[in-house]
Amino acid sequence: MSENRKVHFIPPRPVKRQKRVGIYCRISSNSMEQLDSLTNQVSALTRLTASTPNWLLVDTYIDIASGKAKSNRKAFNRLIKDCEAKNIEIVITKNISRFGRDTVEVLESLNKLKEQGVRVIFDQEGLDTADTDSELMISIIESIAQAENESRSANIKWGYRRQAAQGTSKLYNRKCYGYENDEDGLLIIKDEEAKIVRLIYDLYLRGLSIIGIKRELEKLGIKTPTGKEKWSKRTIDVMLSNEKYIGVVRLLNAGENQEHYVSENNHPAILSKEQFEAVQEEKKKRSNVVKTEDGVQRKSKKYSSKK
Known about the structure:
The structure is a single chain. By secondary structure, the protein is of the alpha/beta class. It has two domains: 19-153, 3-Layer(aba) Sandwich (Rossmann fold); 171-290, Hect, E3 ligase catalytic domain fold. The chain is 41% helix and 16% strand. It has helices at 32-50, 74-84, 96-99, 103-115, 134-166, 191-205, 210-219, 233-239, 273-286; strands at 19-27, 55-64, 90-93, 119-122, 127-128, 179-181, 187-189, 249-251, 261-263, 289-292, 295-298. The strands form four sheets. It has a five-stranded mixed sheet, sandwiched between helices. A hairpin with a 4-residue loop joins strand 4 and strand 5 (127-128). The longest helix is centred in the middle third of the chain and has 33 residues, at 134-166. The radius of gyration is 33 Å and the shape is rod-shaped. The relative contact order is 0.07. The model has no long low-confidence stretch (mean pLDDT 83).
């Protein structure tokens, strides 16, 4: 053995403790499109966990729940309990909207997890509670949530417009007094109610006021659209202006200066066009509101009928 030989003791390197990771995913329904989205969420986040040193995937939490506040999220609640039990140290989710249904819920959940020392990562936004100041995180989340709400609202409105333009909107066949839906969801005339509609228009053209029609209907024992014995003036007035009774439906009609969609011959008519237009002309004559160059003014006398 050489006299210059030296033996050194090399202590073992401490094994870095693996961080226990939980993946949270949420979809709003079990439709094929949503299930595909779920598969993509789980796959992407699993790859992210596997490619990060010292991360250990412990569990995947999946909810099929709508964004409505009262919908139950069993998996999310289980995730919170596992975090409180120190079984999970890092939570990864696709984005803020998947983690919570509104800004308040997101912030409440983040605060709860922060108290447990749990790190939360939003993959899509690139946000990490370990690297982001709390106040800044709140500001970012609120701005992102607002942008998502505006985008969601714009998408919904665009969908309504597209369906209205294509004639596929179910709103074209939304029933009212005098109509019902057939097996295919299309509007058909409800004979007994249609007789009452014709009677109301006939009484108006005979000179009765809305109050006079109300009294006549109640005297005849005719029930309101909601089954009540007393008719409201508003109900009768709306019926006297409803184009649906001549087979016409207007959608997205927000005013004279706004674009909208009109479906003519949308369904069987209860009234003739001539009778409907005659009532509209009569309503203008009886109205105590007139439009002048100075704006809207009221007449000194109101129409009344003693009939």
